[in-house]
Amino acid sequence: MSAMHTDLSAARLQIPVGAANRWAMIFGGIGLLGLAATASGFFSEATRMESLSAYLVAFFYVLTLAVGAMFFAALQHLVGARWSVVLRRIAENYGSFTPWLILLFIPIAVFAKDILPWMNIEGIKNPEYRQAVTVAMESKTWYLTVPFFFGRAVIYFAFWTFAGLFYYRKSVEVDTSGDAHTILLLRKLAPPTVILFGLTLTFAAFDWLMGVDPTWATTMFGVYGFAGTMLSSLALIALTARTLQGYGYMEGVVNDEHFHDIGKLMFGFTVFWAYIAYSMFMLIWYANLPEETVWYRKHWENGWSTLTWTLILLHFLVPFFGLISRTAKRHPTILKALAALLVVMHWVDLYWLIMPLFREHMAFSFYDFAAVLGTAGLFFGVAARTFGKAALIPIKDPHLADSMGYDNG
Amino acid sequence: MSAKTAVTFEDNVWGVVAEYKSPGALLEAVKAVRQAGFSAIDTYTPFPIHGMDRAMGLRPTILPYLVLGGGLTGVGCAILLQWWMNGFDYPFIIGGKPIISYQAYVPVGFELMVLLSALTTVFGLFALCRLPQPYHPLFTHDRFPRFSDDGFFLAIEATDPSFSEARAREALAAAGGTEITVVRDISET
Description:
The structure holds two protein chains of two kinds. By secondary structure, chain A is an all-alpha fold. Chain A has one domain (2-404). In chain A, 76% of the residues lie in helices and 0% in strands. Chain A has helices at 2-5, 17-42, 48-78, 85-95, 98-110, 112-115, 127-137, 146-177, 180-209, 221-246, 256-287, 290-298, 304-323, 326-330, 332-358, 366-389, 400-404. In chain A, helix 5 packs antiparallel against helix 8 (146-177). The longest helix of chain A has 32 residues, at 146-177. Helices cover 44% and strands 13% of the residues of chain B. The two termini of chain B are 17 Å apart. Chain B has helices at 2-5, 23-35, 52-56, 63-89, 105-128, 165-174, and strands at residues 13-20, 41-44, 152-157, 178-184. Chain B is elongated and about 80 Å long. Chain B is built from six helices and four strands; from the N terminus they run αβαβαααβαβ. A four-stranded antiparallel sheet of chain B has the order 2-3-1-4, with helices on one face. Chain B has two domains: 2-45 and 151-184, Alpha-Beta Plaits (2-Layer Sandwich); 63-128, no CATH class. Classes of the chains: A mainly alpha, B alpha+beta. The interface between A and B is medium-sized, with 11 and 16 residues.
């Protein structure tokens, strides 16, 4: 069986460096323009909060895409998955973006006092809210301190950088060495990687997103972030693979069987996301405690209900019914369109999560789009360059033949 | 045993069955037998074999659509049920919420959807496979119980337009089958 499926001579598995770099320039150029436009808002008192909040959403967006892709790669080693070998390099490429997150974190670190009210309680203008934060801080002072906050950030970034680069570099190393021991090493490190991924992503969401309103807390927050992260990374991998095939790459290597399976996972995590979102909402809605319900009230009134319904429709119902059938999962255009939708909706999801805490009325600003084009442009620019550096699949992975011959039956 | 030896309905042939050594051998045999022009074939194995559906040329099952219908019925019924009971039949204010609070309909809607989907899956499968079948002509074949243990059976049924006992025997043997046996339908006695 193996001999029959490992003939790679006909498949285009290497993006020419020139083409990859051209894409890197285009994406990177858009990214730098977007980042510059966003940063211009930081320095004026009038636009600071508008641009900072937009940047926070955009920062967390690429953070989840990169870290989620890194998680996908580690997860395949954890479970010893064979079907996904041909898709793993795409995840590894995106996962190797993690060191850049440190750079993107700088504005958050510099303007932390503006974003996180607990860092600057005296600066809170609304006296009632200042009182509420002061009371809330009584039980949280041990956790919400400036040194501990940045200490945690250092741990997150150290882990993400290490794991993102490690899973990328070791995998590329096997492309030339063909050494199965390297794969075993990656497998051995997968359990701690996956556990640390869960912890760091959860606490990063607590620190940087939930911390925007220190008076409110839910233990579901981290899981909610994870659900969106996992779903968007799967969608990103499917979208990338289908797009590359549109340019004639990986044909005969990645086939309908692989898309069928990643479609199944996307379908599953679409349900998981909705399940978690509703679970987070339901407990608060039922209990009806004013200090908790106020958060959802902010996400509902003054036009925000439109965005809430948009999420229910486009982050759940459309992908749910769109991905439910076998035909749709295997159909190139349908899967690609739904994957693109989910990648975009993940940004809308994070926007919905954070923005009502900064803005009373629902209204998109110029900075929202500048910021997301900025971070996503940089993300795809760096990724495009990485895509040109090595083959598009792990060409000497011991399970490559199994993956190429994979059949849903 | 005595009942079996007494059967003399020589004409009532249901089909010809053969045994194969392994799932792989069975898969190849199915391809060969279909190549030889037979289409009314079926396989009997202890476990599902990857690629067998395609090798046998089975058309996709309609079960998923039945399940979707079951699930939608479940969620629809659950919403109607809660809306009518809480809103009209026995309106009661709970936790200071409006009488019709659609937010609360989700868990019951989800559960009924899962319940009806699951029931449709199980009973739909039974119906599509025409189960339970207390009698099947193959049950008269002494070696047939091994299909749930280590036997990989392939049968060519008499309903096949190009069926003849000799041709079927020949095709099954050519594909590597052993223990080739003619199976008769004794249900009409």
